Amino acid sequence: MSSAGGSSRAGGVDLGGTRVAAENLRIGGCSAATTPVERVGFHLVDLARRQVRYLRLSLTDRCNYRCVYCMPAEGATVAPRADLLDFDELVRTCRLFVGLGIRHVRLTGGEPLVRRDVVDLIGRIAAIDGIADLAMTTNAHLLAELAAPLRRAGLRRLNVSLDTLDPERFASLTRGGDLQRVLDGLRAAHDAGFRAIKLNAVVVRGRNEVDLAPLAAFAAEHGHVLRFIEYMPIGLDDTWSGADGQGGGFLAAAEMKNNLVAHGWRFDDAQAAPAAGVVGGGPARYERVHHPEHGALDLGFITAVSDHFCATCNRVRVTATGVLRECLSAPGRLSLREAMRAGSSDAELAAMVQDALLGKVEGHRFAVGEQTYEAMSSIGG
Ligand code: SAM
Ligand code: SF4
Predict the structure, then answer these.
(1) Could you say which ligand is closest to the alpha carbon of residue 203?
(2) Which ligand is nearest to the CA of 228?
(3) How far apart are CA 160 and CA 51, in angstroms?
(4) For an engineered disulfide with 368, which of 247, 341, 347, 348 has Cβ 3.0 to 4.6 Å away?
(5) Res. 40 pLDDT band, cuts 50 70 90
(6) Model confidence over 121-168: pLDDT tens digits?
(7) What's the pTM value of the predicted model, to 2 decimals?
(8) How far does residue 26's CA lie from ligand 1's centre (Å)?
(9) Closest Cα to residue 252, out of 232, 230, 233?
(10) Domains of the chain and CATH, by start
């Protein structure tokens, strides 16, 4: 098996106290040995019996922004171009996971729209039989030009990162981003036929908690779904830890809610998640909230730190360089790129993926002092 720079699997692996013998690590046609990983229908299942249904595939580790929560001021180190999966490899990766039962594919980055000829790539991925939901997460800097071609190519859903509606704060949080381009991109996406666009806002204490209420009003007025994301301690930057080293940039979802309530938002249907009409299958917990002036809004919180959702995690990630990451917080060990370039067959790749899932940790351990010094842009968010 190709390794992405981790520990050797020889002799088996130790997973939270469960020792898995080496002979039980080979499955999916490579060995008849019984194994703790099963295929239920065609779904990938890990040791904690979580079904994997969702692939986040990174198209590039490059980005035209340098958000404070994602990478350091000088930008993230990027991989040599030759190490990025090429279009054939990206399409093959999608086919591989569709063959393993994945139906939801989200394209991410870095910034996916900076990948040259991205529209052609979307067309090829959209043509794969079996993908029920093809979506993208983007900063929208290039969306005004690309929304209509992306829609025609087969992209069905969009998440747009937007942390503030104040042009100066936007430029400061993204280190140079242009808010007007994002707003133009959102309008173009709506005109191109994208609906229920999800806005993603990472909330950083001292930087944009003042933007919670304006973002909620904006999303309600435009028919967007809004998700507030807790700032995760990943990102090669000390903004999370704060000056005191105690997580000074972190703001929990409960506090975000209080802030919104203070601005007139009512959480009447707090138990009624998910809100009607929100498609996704991701980790956000949605509620339909109301405001006397702005009306109703489908609002989600991604509480990766204060109340993690690892027990129901249904996703895997593949980085732009082809590394399979079973968990956001753990470095991957399987390089699909190396395996593909070494001539592995589809059946061998499928077996490697199932095998790698044995190493999926039961949960992350995000906490003060456990910051992952790795740019989110190189993982895919
Ligand atoms: N460039 C695209 C964008 O920003 O939408 C896609 C890649 S970005 C890495 C994916 C998502 O990760 C974005 O919504 C971004 O806000 C989020 N993100 C980045 N760093 C984060 C952090 N430290 N904590 C929480 N979310 C983060
Ligand atoms: Fe780029 Fe997205 Fe990271 Fe911001 S969050 S620097 S837009 S990859």
Answers:
(1) 1
(2) 1
(3) 27
(4) 247
(5) very low
(6) 999 999 999 999 999 999 999 999 999 999 999 999 999 999 999 999
(7) 0.85
(8) 34
(9) 230
(10) 44-379 (3.20.20.70)
